Amino acid sequence: AQSVAQPEDQVNVAEGNPLTVKCTYSVSGNPYLFWYVQYPNRGLQFLLKYITGDNLVKGSYGFEAEFNKSQTSFHLKKPSALVSDSALYFCAVRDIWTGRRALTFGSGTRLQVQP
Amino acid sequence: DGGITQSPKYLFRKEGQNVTLSCEQNLNHDAMYWYRQDPGQGLRLIYYSQIVNDFQKGDIAEGYSVSREKKESFPLTVTSAQKNPTAFYLCASTLQDLGQGSTEAFFGQGTRLTVV
Questions:
Q1: CA B113, B22, A40, A36 torsion: positive or negative?
Q2: Rg of chain B over CA atoms, in angstroms?
Q3: Looking at beta carbons, which residues of chain B come within 8 Å of A9?
Q4: pLDDT-flagged residues of chain B (< 50)
Q5: Is B109's CB within 8 Å of A43's CB?
Q6: Among A27, A78, A106, B9, which one is least packed by beta carbons within 10 Å?
Q7: Which among B42, B97, B112 has the least Cβ separation from residue A105?
Q8: Is A62 helix (H, G, I), strand (E, B) or coil?
Q9: Each residue of A90-99: pLDDT tens digit?
């Protein structure tokens, strides 16, 4: 079975400071990993993904994430937070070796960036 | 513009009624998915379909039904057997993964269902 944990319900950061949103995963094989962002009453928007290759993945809006296989983590990062980054962030995983071709999502982390 | 359209945006259901949520995509994607979102619980998979005329149950399929008669359409019916249907419902689609990589899922804007 595949699963994702986002240990923080909310992350608070001041504008201009670096931000990190944590994600750990569990799969039986190799993972496909994704980050999505959601604004109020909207669908999810894709930010970035890890499939294979370089462990540091760069995505939309200046976000990046680092895949760490030994720690089974895929933390989302940004060097300098903006107030407009305030939203709900979801990590998702798919185990490429299972027959279930659907993403499993974490519970979400609310990012609040203070001006 | 290509994308996924969910309708209606807001839906109200009386006790004992069945309601159907619409999901249409013009991305020519093979796979489509329905998720339910509740506060603090993230997204939970209800049903998914890899190809036309085929679909599989997700983690919380009880009280829901789907059909996939056309590639571009994947409607979700919330039946009276679903005892707590009030939630935000999200439809998504992806290109078919043929084992050579995986594409990201594209999401609709959601339907908020409320039982009155």
A1: positive
A2: 14
A3: 40
A4: 100
A5: yes
A6: B9
A7: B42
A8: helix
A9: 999 987 766 6
